[in-house]
Design a protein that fits this description.
6-stranded antiparallel β-sheet, mainly beta
Length: about 110
């Protein structure tokens, strides 16, 4: 059985938003946030960015940030983010400890 998620402390401490994913449909779920909630086994209650208290409105596509201006594009993960942090213009995001990142390619 393939691993469908990772905890931030294992892999995704710093991430970057993936550009041009707003048109990507999630097969099997009504939204990417619903996809995250299904595989994470919990309801999204707060933005995954460390120290943000915003309400999560999207399941954002993110990749592990290798360096400040570079990223590992091999695996995209979904994490709940508020509208302010769901943008490639915010740069590198530090996520909350124990945030679950769900693999985007599973459905």
């Amino acid at each position: 059985m393939a691993l469908n998620y990772v905890r931030v402390s294992e892999v995704l401490l710093k991430v970057r938003n993936v550009e041009d994913t707003s048109g990507k449909a999630c097969s099997g779920h009504k939204s990417w946030l619903a996809h995250w909630e299904w595989y994470a086994g919990t309801k999204a209650t707060v933005c995954s960015k460390k120290d943000c208290q915003g309400s999560p409105v999207v399941g954002a596509h993110v990749v592990k940030a290798k360096l400040e201006n570079d990223m590992d594009k091999s695996t995209q993960f979904i994490v709940p983010l508020c509208s302010m942090h769901n943008s490639s213009s915010v740069g590198t995001l530090k996520l909350r400890p124990n945030t679950v990142g769900v693999v985007a390619s599973i459905a």
